[in-house]
Amino acid sequence: MPQLFRVLILLLALLAPATAHAQAGPQRTERIEAELVSMSQWAAPGSTAVVAIRQKIQPGWHTYWRNPGDSGGATSLTWALPAGITAGDIVWPLPDRQRLQTLVNYGYEDAVYLPVPIELPASVRPGTTVPLEVEALFLVCSDEMCVPDELTLRLDLPIREGAAPLTATHGAAIQTILEQSPRPAGIDARATVLDGVITLTATGGPLAGQDPGPVYFFPFEGGVIDHAAAQSGSWGPQGLTLVITGGGKTRSGGLAGPMGGVLDTRLGAFEISATPGEPLPGATGSGDLAPAEEGAGPTAATAPTGIGAFVQAALFALLGGLILNLMPCVFPILAMKAASLTASAHDAAHARRDGLAFLAGVLVTFLILAGVLLGLRAAGEAVGWGFQLQSPPVTAGLALLMLAVALNLSSVFQIGAGLQGAGSGPLSRLPGGAGAFFTGALAVVVAAPCTAPFMAFALGAALVMPWPMALVVFLMLGLGLALPFVIVSLSPGLLRRLPRPGPWMERLKTLLAFPMYGTALWLAWVFSRQTGAEGLGLLFVAGLLLAFALWLLGMAQTERIHGRRGLMHLVAGVAVLILAGAAMVLTAKAPAQTASATASAQGGDALVSSPWSAEAVAAARAEGRPVLVNFTADWCVTCKINERTSLATNDVKRAMEATNAVYLVGDWTRRDDAITAELQRHGRSGVPLYLLYAPGSDEPRILPQLLTGGLVVQALEDAAPAS
Q: With contact defined as beta carbons under 8 Å apart, do 707 and 720 qualify?
């Protein structure tokens, strides 16, 4: 085991993204150079200093705005600042529109500054320097590849009394960005949605009585508009009207609230918030708007220069898939793998067939799930990895499927081979390769929602890559999951070590049914958390009818083996199976449990928790308290084990009380777009995710996916404010 850990650490070091030590001056990767610079030569005590992340991006590459558009990810900053000093939000310059085939992204090329205000307390002493340190995560993309580059940047900011002049190198450029950056300007705006088309009217402020010239609306949120569609409209005595094609979110349900964004005009760029409602008067009648021209966009069709990063993401996916075999999510599926393997262990041809069929089942199912996930995200849906188990009907269907598999392993009924062969060796299951393919598919559906180490980076990178590359990364993840079983099935020497076929296989088959019963019960519990007691009761009825129907069908099979027709059992079994299907339909229509009910159901945890929200985090941090955030889901077995073994211990509870920390839980059992967005902001596409906010630090520390109580206690003590 120590040798294994050393190999994993060495592999991680070789594959890790290029980073720099915390030192002043420019830091570089192959794609980007970045530096933390100051607008002014010094800062005064009690003032607001302005620093900026200067990016020098290599030709053919680009980074992203706060809303990246159809793909990509915004630059994120994690600050490490002395006590009492706080960093504000990025002041985002207006981006370019970058077209790549049918996609349009919002981002930056060549050189760009991202200014950030830094609040200094009056207690800082003149004549000293304040160390500012930030971890900047850039998603740097070409038209072939996206690479997440993380650089640690540092600036020693001098403290002096009095007004400071601009720095000679960067001061004027940063000041220009601040002066030209979008800001509110007293503009009133309305958004009217009809048949998926948004009519945006904006009046007042600088728009009144002037031709705005070419106009384009940049939304703050992805999926609200079709970024690639042209925007047209007209202007009037009080303002302007834009006709915008709606995005996936708007087409599916209209606008749920105000639509925020930037209105880019010849008169300037202005932040607006368009509330749903009727169009404002005075926004038409004076003329048509000139079409807005797109930005230059990425350099077209060059040879891929970031292929190494794509290979890195694929290798991380392969390693994550291998480790996924050791995660608690996959344990129930190991029973089906073992049953399939032992059935053909001493038939090399059948073992090879089963191994390759299992691999095909895993890869095809990964491909389908990844395709659905990428398609939903392209349509503007906020979904992440594991989305299938956020649907109560899917959870209920899987619970009944697992029950049927368990009953099959318990010999209640047979699929494929008849009972004649039950004592002679072959396990009764789907015939040949079909059974192994089905096993692989089921392993992915049930096991994939949990994430293993190395998967977070791979999935986060895949979701912002061009779709062909993203699918390859997902297929590498599937290859890692299937690889141990495939290697054994293709290794005659390993297979010969297994016992010869015999009656023991029938006993093993019956024993292996119990993990599947456990999986069915677990999925039923997840379903109850999603729908409540009424839904669980309906699922129990459907399960009982299904078990009775399969027993009747099994009796019909037995009678046919003994030379009788078994027609009565067959007809009764089919009739009860139809009733079970009707009960399943009623189960799928069970009303969802409210969020408050779900939250109250967690009251037995050792740690007192509150529901996560951005506002709850901000309120706790405003009080100067550490904040531990747990993004979890009831269908994530790894999450539940971490909570029982690491988060619910007395040591952690005492550490929470000693540090006056706040514990917030983001429950992703059912779909929650706000949680999905927060996961994406931290480069994740699934749970678990553990964040620890320390007082005075704007960005959280991300804890490992596999927790220990000691690790959590140490992290809380490190985050506690100095007494």
A: no
Band (pLDDT 50/70/90 cuts) for residue 406 is: confident
φ, ψ at 452 (rounded to 5°):
-110, 165
Tokens of 612: 């996560």
What's the Cα-to-Cα distance from 279 to each of 190, 203, 244, 367, 620, rounded to whole Å?
A: 6, 10, 14, 44, 40
The pLDDT of residue 151 is 93
- Residue 592, pLDDT above cutoff 60: no
Cα(337)–Cα(485) distance, integer angstroms: 7
What whole-number distance in Å separates Cα of residue 401 and Cα of residue 575? Answer: 18
d(CA 390, CA 633): 9
Residues 558 and 626: their CA atoms lie apart, in Å, by 64
CA nearest neighbour of 696 among 121, 129, 52, 54: 121
Three-state secondary structure string covering 297-366 = CCCCCCCCCCHHHHHHHHHHHHHHHHHHCCCHHHHHHHHHHHHHHHHCCCCHHHHHHHHHHHHHHHHHHH
CB neighbourhood size of 654 (10 A): 12
**What SS3 class is residue 221?**
coil
Q: Which of 107, 135, 118 is nearest to 38 (CA)?
A: 118
* R_g of the chain computed on alpha carbons: 29
Give the amino acid at 343: A
The pLDDT-based confidence of 340 (bands split at 50, 70, 90) is low
Nearest to 66 by CA among 77, 79, 51: 77
Axis crossing angle, helix 533-561 with helix 503-531, rounded to the nearest 10: 160
Tokens at 422, concatenated: 């039950």
CB 370 within 8 A of CB 455: no
SS3 sequence of 51-88 = EEEEEEECCCCEEEEEEEECCCCCCEEEEECCCCCEEC
Compare 310 and 339 and report the one with higher pLDDT.
310
pLDDT score of 495: 67
Mean model confidence pLDDT for the chain: 78
Q: Is there a contact between 517 and 374 (Cβ–Cβ < 8 Å)?
A: no
11-35 pLDDT, tens digit each: 433 344 433 345 678 998 989 999 9
Locate 651 and state its tokens: 């040591």
Question: How far apart (Å, rounded) are the C-alpha atoms in residues 550 and 577?
Answer: 8
Distance separating alpha carbons of residues 241 and 218, to the nearest angstrom: 15
**DSSP string covering 480-531, please?**
HHHHHHHHHHT-HHHHHTSPPSSHHHHHHHHHHHHHHHHHHHHHHHHHHHHH
Euclidean distance between CA atoms 77 and 26, whole angstroms: 16
Render pLDDT for 165-174 as a digit per residue (tens, 0 to 9): 888 888 888 9
Amino acid present at 52: A
Which residue from 270, 141, 140 is spatially nearest to 218, judged by alpha carbons?
270
Residue with tokens 């997440």: 148
- Rounded to the nearest 5 percent, the helix, strand and coil shares of the chain are 45, 20, 35
Separation between Cα atoms, residue 481 and residue 438, nearest integer Å? 15
Q: How far apart are CA 66 and CA 26, in angstroms?
A: 23
